[in-house]
Amino acid sequence: MSDSGREPVTYASAGVDTEAGDRAVELMKDAVRATHGPQVLGGVGGFAGLYDLAAVSRYRRPLLATSTDGVGTKVAIAQAMDVHHTIGFDLVGMVVDDIVVVGAEPLFMTDYIATGSVVPERVAAIVRGIAEACAETGTALVGGETAEHPGLLAPDEYDVAGAATGIVEAEDVLGPERVRAGDVVLAMASSGLHSNGYSLVRRVLQVAGWSLDREVPELGRRLGEELLEPTRLYTRPCLSLARDAGRHLHALSHVTGGGLAANLARVLPPGLLAEVDRSSWTVPPVFEMVRHLGDVPWTDLEATLNLGVGMVAVVSPEGVDGAVAQLAEAGVPSWVLGRVRSDEGETGDGVVRGTKGVRGGAVQMLGRYTTA
Predict the structure, then answer these.
(1) What digits encode the pLDDT tens for the residues 309-352?
(2) Least crowded by CB within 10 Å, which of 69, 182, 310, 348?
(3) 91 φ, ψ to 5°?
């Protein structure tokens, strides 16, 4: 008791447990170390991660690429299911595969976890997933932060974010400058919802009254398990395409927030339009489930979810067969989605241009979707 007669206020009584944070670091550090090669200096727990750039000397004009992102409200599903390690794959997918789009090889990543109360095992599970995904993509996890925010977040609530840096030779950068009329648009299959549109999905399930433990025959598993399916990591297959397809690979587009058309338009130059055939693939059951349960218009679904296409490659006609074969060997189903032609100023439903502040090309969605 203090001289005032009141109980003294301490950091612990304010809701912050620094010892729990230390225990979380102990539980996660082996997983983090497993992502470290000889380029990472200083180990775990420093103020900053150190990465040796001596290998950059082999580049004639090295460019650094960087990206940052989170996983959105998918964390609410993880919290409700009390399954936390898969979220790390979503985070790495959202961050690392954004820099791969320009042809950059990821070097290192950092993460940030904000939570209402540090539960060491839960934090360690999240970071373990991030580390496993980093190892799969060849990315060193060089640092991170876990912040306890009592009063701002409920004890079991958390959010995650990350940032990654990669490197690419200036003359090898992929993007709009390489795209030509006559190029072919290839789709790479998603593993499910990935990490976008969960606010729509969660609202649909709330309206329908469906619980996460509901068995859904069309999905072959419980609803919550489907919703937590990790984001497919395209890093190594896309970098292999960039290396082996060489001049045939012109651009990549990561299908995240905004859907297929909006993201593809970002990597097309002004004056060109990509025609996309909606009937060229079968929309996976989880998307049709969301549409049916919520009476969601196809236009809204198309502008929100990936509908089964997680990454897109724009290649020369001569490179199509080789790219499809190479992706199949890497375990990534792919198919011809459409072609690039001159933009003749088309307007109306199904035409998207000028997305996310980019003065790029246009995409025209044609035909009708096929559902299982």
Answers:
(1) 999 999 999 999 999 999 999 999 999 999 999 998 888 888 99
(2) 348
(3) -65, -50
Distance of CA 155 to the CA centre of its chain: 26
Residue 47: pLDDT band (50, 70, 90) is confident
DSSP character string of 186-197: EEEE-SSSTTS-
Q: In terms of Cα–Cα distance, which of 4, 339, 59 is closest to 185?
A: 339
Q: Which residues have a Cβ under 8 Å from the Cβ of 79 and sit 6 or more positions away?
A: 156, 157, 158
Dist. CA 189–CA 191, nearest whole Å: 7
pTM of the model: 0.91
Detail the DSSP E strand segments found in the chain: 40-41, 50-51, 62-70, 105-115, 140-148, 158-169, 184-189, 215-216, 221-222, 249-254, 272-277, 282-283, 309-315, 334-342, 351-353, 362-366, 370-371
- CA–CA separation, 134 and 103 (whole Å): 17
Going by C-beta distance under 8 Å and a sequence separation of 6 or more, which residues neighbour residue 182? 316, 317, 339, 340, 341
Q: Is pLDDT of 199 > 60?
A: yes
Name the residue type at position 201.
V
C-alpha 191/C-alpha 155 separation (Å) is: 31
